[in-house]
Structure formats: C-alpha cells, structure tokens
Amino acid sequence: MTTYNVYCDESCHLEQDYIPVMVLGAVWCPQHISKRIGRDIRAIKQNMV
Per-residue pLDDT tens for 17-33? Predict the structure, then answer.
C-alpha cells in the first residue's frame, strides 16, 4: 500500500476585495519521494533569483 502526502491551498478570499470567487487546489505525491520533490522545488526557486 502506498501512502500519499497531500498539500492543499486556497486563494485569499476576502469579503471586501469584491472578487466573488475562491479557488481551492491540491497536489499529492507518494510519501517516499516527497523529500526529493521538496529539494527539487527549492533548487528551482533558487535558480529563479
């Protein structure tokens, strides 16, 4: 059996921003590769600076 890590986020929905929509999103990955994915994302972010 594979265990998955799930990462969720939502758009910043504020009552006074006059935008009537909100977005929910999620990504998931097998737990055994989550550390590698985190390292890869940090490397990409570093290369963008």
Answer: 888 888 999 999 999 99
Residues whose CB falls within 8 Å of the CB of residue 7, separated by 6 or more in sequence, listed in order? 26, 27, 28
Helix, strand, coil shares of the chain, percent, nearest 5, are 45, 30, 30
Q: Does the pTM exceed 0.85? A: no
From CA 35, how far away is CA 41, in angstroms rounded? 10
| Residue 23, C-beta contacts closer than 8 angstroms, at least 6 positions apart | 10, 11
Q: How many CB atoms lie within 10 A of CB 1?
A: 2
